Write the structure tokens for this entry.
Amino acid sequence: MATEQKPAYSPGLAGVVAGETEICWVDPNAGLMYRGYDIHKLAEEASFEEVAHLLIKGELPNFEQLGKFTRAIAAERTLPKQVLDVLRLMPKNTHPMDMLRTGVSMLAPFDVDLNDNSHEANVRKAIRLIAKVSTLITDGYRIQHGEEPLPEKSDLTLAGNFFYKLNGEVPQAWQIRMMDTIFILYADHEFNASTFAARVTASTLADMYAAVTSACGTLKGPLHGGANEESMKMLEEIKTPDRAEKWMMDALAQKKKIMGFGHRVYKKGDSRVPIMREIGRDLGKRVGKEQWVPICEQLEATMEREKQLCANVDLYAAPVFTMFGFDPALNTPIFAASRVAGWCAHVIEQHDHNRLIRPRSLYTGPELRPYPGTPHNGAPAKR
Ligand code: ACO
């Protein structure tokens, strides 16, 4: 017998405000800001370290603070030998996101601040995680492909070093600028699924590594971060712009979910798409692969006409990463290399103003009914 009124319910928590944050605001009308700064300006001019400082420490750094923060991240890049040994033991077919999730979890006991959730200790852990998540991805990938990890280049920023350690060549200034822009675009997005998972975990007063492990698991799904790997499969299948409209019409007729389209918050377009589209166009010219952006644009126009759905950043991120020479299996880990800054900022905020996140559910099972007794042979045991 029901003892309470049925509570209000929103499937998928759509439209539900689940907490307050000072870190990031997603404007449904296609805007995005980090702590009051427009993403467009940051993406054009800032470095990833600058934005990570803004997210983690609350303000943009001055010249001296930026140097100190950049050096602090660079000093934390190396992985413990035991973690590298475990990466070597993982089956060769392990998805890089699974490798990353395992690696983050393994790093926890090596951090002397692990169980200290104070603001200062959390900032120290955030710096370590931002540095080491990148290394887990680059070193994990090389190990998986039978190669030795490349040594760090201390004079390269996080974005430059990430590029170098994956591709094996020192990036040019324009490549580092593009990588910084991409990392800035992906760095935070308020209560997206992986960040929310991190905050739920942190709200139990579990440590930052536990929260980032939860976030990695959540990011992997194709409705969230995993979409950028799936988008690339779709673009490879379409091959040329003239085939895009028919491909989309066929897919929609089959009621398929098209990866890289739709968004829970943005209904008038994803604020990050125009910047990522321009990077795609520029990169396409530089590397002689100009077909990808027109394919995406044709898909966008068809989807807009048929279902009034907009592209999200993953549609254009996928070919951008491919044109950089990265394996599409790394698309979601690249997202994680950047989003870890946002995850950590949210864990710090959660721990600083904590209240357990524990929603209710709407019970839809049977009404109260009598227990029929244990179905074993013979008479039921009596007390
Ligand atoms: N392809 C086809 N139809 C879609 C798509 C899509 N990508 N996205 C939404 N729709 C349709 C839904 O089927 C639904 O149609 P209906 O009303 O006829 O049933 C309608 O649009 C509304 O969609 P919802 O499912 O209510 O949207 P929701 O907010 O729940 O989901 C999500 C948002 C998960 C992003 C969804 O749009 C989707 O699955 N997109 C593809 C995966 C993707 O690209 N994810 C990346 C998100 S951005 C990021 O993580 C960086």
About this structure: The pocket of acetyl coenzyme *A is lined by residues 12, 223-225, 227, 257-264, 309, 312-314 (CB under 6 Å).
